[in-house]
Design goal:
The structure holds two protein chains of two kinds. Chain A has helices spanning 3-20, 75-78, 112-116; strands at 40-44, 51-52, 56-60, 66-72, 87-88, 92-98, 104-109, 120-125, 132-135, 140-142, 145-150, 153-159. By secondary structure, chain A is an alpha+beta fold. The longest helix of chain A has 18 residues, at 3-20. The N and C termini of chain A lie far apart (76 Å). By secondary structure, chain B is mainly alpha-helical. Chain B folds into two domains: 6-366, no CATH class; 373-472, no CATH class. Chain B has 19 helices and four strands. In chain B, strands 2-1-3-4 form a four-stranded mixed β-sheet, with helices on one face. Chain B starts with 5 loop residues before the first helix and ends with a strand. Classes of the chains: A alpha+beta, B mainly alpha. At the A-B interface, α1 of A face α12, α14, α17 and α19 of B.
């Protein structure tokens, strides 16, 4: 290959690099040296395998269904602010069941500090505009957990 | 043109001054070095850092930690600076031996080596605690023992160098096929040579056996607890990160290729990239061409496809081989001008001038002499965390900085640092119990932060993550 050909190739390739070279290195923030707690969990009713999201466990109860759970670290911004004088105790979780008639048991870890704050399980009421957090009244506290059985929706622990 | 000792001395002087003026004075997270706290702490406490354990780095960095100057982190950062200067020196020697004998070959080797050491990414890695500066040094030594025929070394030693590279960074095993490819017009090396080289690799890899020996002492940083067979293989195989290799979407991969093009231009400028591509097609001898193209391609593809957030650090060997191609491009340019001595004499100082003109532009982007993000975080955390707290931490920089403060600097021994992301691993729970005998660990298969909170009701609880300020209850 003579010099002119090499130079032409080099010019063309540099031109291509200049035109295409842009943007930042795609860096998934959860792929770090120390693994992060899961931000998403998926499963099926058939497997009957609870989805463990570190601070809460979701157990689908139906016979045939798919379940998807997404963690949300800023529920006040993404969904709705908490009722006055209350605050979020940890992350919120968006639970999606297909079909949406199926049910899931939701169990949040409930250590003494949450008991002291009188934390309760809330579900986002999306039937009103704007959405508001509504307490899940039949949630039961026992053995360091607060549990309720419910359907698809967005759940959070909210306390004083 | 240049006396044989002058160029190496000038390389040491120029790079040494630049690095000393910009090196991080203490622990830093800059230039993708969030793992620095883990490496420093494991080194100084005789521990085992994150997979794959980096035994060679542990041994060599420890030597620098004994130097009685400045902070522990500074001394470990210094190791990276020295490794990068050595890389530039070996690169100089490599090019000086391999470029065809001519009036300008030595000067081109000199300019290229300086240019490599001052490329923003390389410069940045020279200032922080990470394994990549040593990785770069081992990469150029691998190329040297493959490419330079005049130096007579045994095949065992040749393989040994490659094995040694793999004891610093596991990705070096991607280069092992080079030991079987014939580099002198033959398709492959003989069985006897491959066998001796393989023995050399195995001998060096035995350095990994240092990890179980360190793990036996139950150091506070003891990833995988390599004292058991399972723990050892879990650690050295990098199993923890296996899922990262398939975690990217096609869009992410395409974005990374585009980002790579941009990064290449940032490292060497349009002129440098033009020279490098031109040099690649300029009749590079097979014993240089095959290893450099192989090294460039495997590390480019590994960096792009490996899903860790900081995988671009694996591009360092790509920047290294590109500098070699630049040297060949420059050499061809000087050969083209051989009948125009005046132009040659004009071009030579111009190249050096261009490098120096670029310095003030690169300097602010790499300078860490006033960086205090990590140390500020440590100070703030130690101030806010109540006595005897259990501290749940997320984020590499945050976890490793607190490890550095507590285990390497012996500060705040009262607090119990818990890396939430490591709770699912039995070796971590064993280590926690040994490190913090007063921590009440419930006997459960899988522990969550709430379990620990519940089991230790009288201790204040703090949460630290990259997204939120320190929160203590």
């Amino acid at each position: 290959m003579n010099r002119l050909s090499r130079f032409t190739i080099a010019i063309l390739l540099v031109g291509l690099l200049v035109l295409t070279g842009a943007g930042v290195w795609a860096a998934p923030r959860f792929n770090s040296t120390v693994p992060h707690p899961p931000s998403n969990g998926q499963g099926t009713c058939e497997r009957a395998q609870p989805i463990d999201m570190d601070t809460a466990i979701f157990s689908p109860l139906g016979n045939t269904c798919n379940i998807n759970v997404d963690r949300d670290a800023q529920p006040a911004i993404d969904f709705a602010p908490v009722p006055e004088s209350l605050g979020f105790d940890g992350d919120a979780f968006k639970v999606t069941l297909v079909p949406d008639t199926e049910k899931v048991q939701i169990c949040y870890a409930y250590p003494p500090e949450l008991e002291a704050k009188d934390a309760k399980l809330y579900k986002l009421d999306e039937s009103v505009t704007p959405s508001v957090w509504a307490e899940v009244k039949d949630a039961v506290i026992s053995n360091g957990q607060i549990c309720a059985t419910n359907t698809s929706g967005i759940y959070a622990l909210i306390g004083k | 043109m240049i006396p044989s000792m002058l160029a190496p001395l000038a390389i040491i002087l120029v790079l040494g001054i630049c690095y000393i003026c910009t090196i991080a004075p203490d622990l830093t997270w800059a230039h993708l070095s969030a793992d620095g706290g883990d490496l420093i702490t494991a080194t100084v406490t005789g521990g085992v850092p994150h997979p794959s354990g980096y035994p060679l780095y542990m041994i060599l960095a420890r030597g620098f930690q004994f130097i009685p100057i400045e902070t522990l982190a500074f001394r470990t950062n210094l190791f990276s600076a020295v490794c990068t200067i050595l890389t530039a020196l070996v690169l100089y020697k490599y090019l000086d031996r391999l470029l065809p004998v001519s009036l300008w070959a030595r000067y081109i080797s000199f300019i290229t080596s300086i240019g490599y050491g001052l490329a923003p990414f390389i410069w940045g890695q020279a200032l922080v605690t990470e394994v990549y500066a040593l990785h770069g040094l081992l990469m150029i030594v691998c190329l040297f023992v493959l490419g330079v025929n005049e130096i007579k070394i045994s095949e065992w030693l040749r393989g040994g160098v490659f094995g040694l590279a793999a004891t610093n960074h596991l990705t070096s095993i991607l280069l092992f096929p080079l030991l079987a490819i014939g580099l002198d017009k033959k398709p492959g090396e003989s069985f006897s040579i491959i066998f001796r080289r393989s023995l050399g690799i195995l001998s060096s890899l035995s350095l990994y056996l240092l990890l179980p020996l360190r793990a036996v002492g139950n150091p506070p940083i003891n990833w995988g607890n390599a004292s058991s067979i399972n723990g050892f293989f879990w650690l050295v195989s990098g199993q923890l990160y296996a899922r990262y290799s398939t975690s990217l979407s096609l869009a992410d991969i395409l974005q990374r290729f585009r980002a790579f093009a941009g990064l290449l231009l940032v490292q060497y400028t349009v002129i440098g990239v033009l020279l490098g591509i031109y040099g690649l097609f300029s009749g590079i001898p097979r014993r240089v061409l095959v290893p450099t193209v192989w090294m460039g391609l495997v590390f480019l593809f590994f960096s792009v496809f490996y899903g860790s957030y900081d995988s671009q650090v694996n591009l360092l060997p790509v920047w290294l081989v590109f500098s070699i191609w630049i040297a060949y491009g420059l050499f061809d340019l000087f050969s083209f001008l051989q009948d125009r001595a005046k132009l040659q004499k004009l071009l030579a100082p111009l190249l050096f001038l261009l490098l120096m003109i670029r310095l003030p532009f690169v300097y602010p982007s790499v300078d860490l002499s006033k960086d205090s993000q990590a140390t500020d975080f440590i100070k703030q955390s130690l101030l806010e965390i109540p006595k005897d707290s259990i501290v749940f931490v997320e984020g590499d920089g945050q976890i490793f900085s607190l490890w550095y403060a507590q285990f390497a600097l012996n500060q705040r021994k009262d607090m119990m640092i818990i890396a939430s992301g490591l709770l699912p691993y039995p070796w971590y729970l064993e280590g926690l119990q040994q490190t913090y005998p007063y921590l009440n660990l419930p006997e459960k298969k899988e522990l969550h932060p709430q379990d620990l909170t519940y089991a230790n009701p009288n201790r204040p609880i703090c949460y630290i993550s990259p997204d939120r300020p320190i929160e203590c209850k």
